Amino acid sequence: xxxxxxxxxxxxxxxxxxxxxxxxxxxxxxxxxxxxxxxxxxxxxxxxxxxxxxxxxxxxxxxxxxxxxxxxxxxxxxxxxxxxxxxxxxxxxxxxxxxxxxxxxxxxxxxxxxxxxxxxxxxxxxxxxxxxxxxxxxxxxxxxxxxxxxxxxxxxxxxxxxxxxxxxxxxxxxxxxxxxxxxxxxxxxxxxxxxxxxxxxxxxxxxxxxxxxxxxxxxxxxxxxxxxxxxxxxxxxxxxxx
Length: 242
Known about the structure:
Elements (H helix, E strand, L loop, with lengths): L1 E4 L21 H15 L5 E4 L8 H8 L5 E5 L17 E5 L1 E6 L2 E6 L20 E5 L6 H14 L2 E3 L6 E3 L4 E3 L12 H16 L35
Parallel strand pairs: 1-2, 2-3, 3-4, 6-7, 7-10
Antiparallel strand pairs: 5-6, 8-9
């Protein structure tokens, strides 16, 4: 099995009170919960691609986390992964560490980047049955308004028509950008198919005006339908959200 997840931010205490509002009492509680969710799903021989921002801790501190995580680890470098420059960091725990990668997952091309890529390689490619072949997995933006802007871009792109070589008439532009933010899966690494379904449900909720469990902003004159003016992260199993 190959799983994906992004922006776990081990040791990032301030995310419990700001931006993510994760609601844990301290880092110890957050780590215990995230490691538990991970190991409940991932077996020792499974692969897990981490799409950046694994930890804000130093080399030794990050080693202490990765030693507890099941699976064979692959890391796409994020802007907070400063432990990579620490001489005490054990890179041997990872199969590879890269700033960007392109892989295949069950005959589908997967673009891997910490940052969302709006025009990604292979975007127009289709399988023999006519279904879209390429997916762009990203992180970085968490569940901020930047994610709303990414969602808006996808709606505009998917709703656009253009001529495509080898196909008759105008065609809708494929756009499959999936934010693998850990809170969207309750800190659990997911298979590509699971992320596809997770993303579909979440974006349908966005188009209706908010995410499950979010406090949507009041309607404002001129606000575009489906894009709330403010948004908060949500994890149903953790009380005390800010």
